[in-house]
Amino acid sequence: MSALTHLDRPPAGEPQGLLVLHHGRGTDERDLLGLADHLDPGRRLHVVTPRAPLTLPGSPGYHWYLVPRVGYPDHDTFHAARDALSVLHDRLWERTGVGPSATVLGGFSMGAVMSYAMALGADRPPVAGLLCLSGFVPVVDGWQAHFEDRRGTTAFVAHGRQDPVIEVGFARRARELLEDGGLAVDYHESDVGHQVDPAVLPAGASWLEAVIPPAVRPPA
Fold this sequence. Notes:
Oligomer: single chain
Largest sheet: 7 strands, mixed
Distance between the termini: 48 Å
Number of helices: 5
Radius of gyration: 16 Å
């Protein structure tokens, strides 16, 4: 399987963690790269933004899966995207020297869905955190959310109450599912549509710093 195209924003020094941001529907690996400076202004983390593998005739950008109905990804393209991301994530852990326990998987819209799919899949290792913006926990044959060994994973979930694409009820159900599974959830709603609300980014940065704390430097 060929590796997914991706961009890197390297840290200022040795990486203290890894943040992988998965873009939304119809965009590409450049779309969320600018979020890195808002979420990690100190450049402590190695940030990677992959490009989804799927292109559709007459539709711009790249897609993680086909959408027969919101909340219910197409089986074949969803699992193909998971397989491709599994390869990428494994290679990133090897290349950066940062393991799953210091990794946060995040994204917007369709990219948030893939973050849930990777972080909560029983066939994948537990990660430190989930940062999901305007997404949902998918319902698809052959995958279900797994929590038994994920209670050390924490989540940041943000969604717009005016979202006409993925209505806010999906986020509320995701919060309930995660909390019932034993995960701590930092949950935010705001009066925006289907977009990343700049007002929630400071809270996201604070959450991320708590999930992957700054390294303690020995006294000089």
